[in-house]
Protein: Phospholipase/carboxylesterase/thioesterase domain-containing protein
Amino acid sequence: MKNKHFFILALLLVCNFITTAQDVNLFEKKELIVAADTLRYRILYPENFDTKKSYPLVLFLHGAGERGNDNQKQLTHGSSLFLDQNNRTEFPAIVLMPQCATNDYWAQVDVNRNNYPVKLDFQFKNGPTKAMGLVLSLLDKFKEETFVNKNRTYVMGLSMGGMGTYELLARNPNRFAAAIAICGAGDPKYVNNYAKKIPVWAFHGAKDNVVDPLQSMKMVSALLNEGAFPRLTLYDFANHNSWDPAFAEPELLQWLFSNTLNEEK
Structure:
């Protein structure tokens, strides 16, 4: 009897693994080549995708641990959120998940890892990193597609991706309808570029010992000082992986997709 139960459990685990792998493969592998540089990315199209229709576009930026060139690791966190059947049905959208090269970074920032939480010195004036430049080119590419709703482009990111999210808002203040930054950081000096244009929802774990939760507090405070009304969720129980409870927020995607670019933006 025990062997029978073990077999059934093992079978369920195998089936779950196969289903998960199949789901992840719904994110198609793509490459964007600009001059001598290549940006590897995955794209998820809505169910029953129709090029004659118009869909929201979500850009998702991964963290530092998912850098590489396998065009796979960037799916580690976040992909399941968009593969959830209820979310696919309720919020049909095109989802882009690019991968940053191992020796690059989404944000223009010097990261000192000698002590934790890490020390961050943002260098926005130096221009975008190669990885960020490629992401900007990717956004330009999809801006030309007729099946993309130009008034409903969104950006989400965690950790390094959260830093990239804030930098993208500063560099493209007229492109995004809303943004979600999880355990991220940014340069408060540039929030005036987008404070009153782009709704922001920031998440952080109060116990985060990698990226100080005060980094999110600084960005939210700067937005408030500019007259914006950002959302902030601080989890008293979470460390750096605050993306887990953030992805579980029942209002997360509902809030994101409820925002639309106004014409005056």
Observations:
- Strands lie at 28-34, 37-44, 55-61, 94-99, 109-112, 119-122, 148-158, 178-182, 200-205, 231-235.
- Helices lie at 2-24, 79-83, 85-90, 130-143, 160-171, 213-225, 243-247, 252-258.
- The domain at 29-258 is CATH 3.40.50.1820 (Rossmann fold).
- The chain has one domain: 29-258.
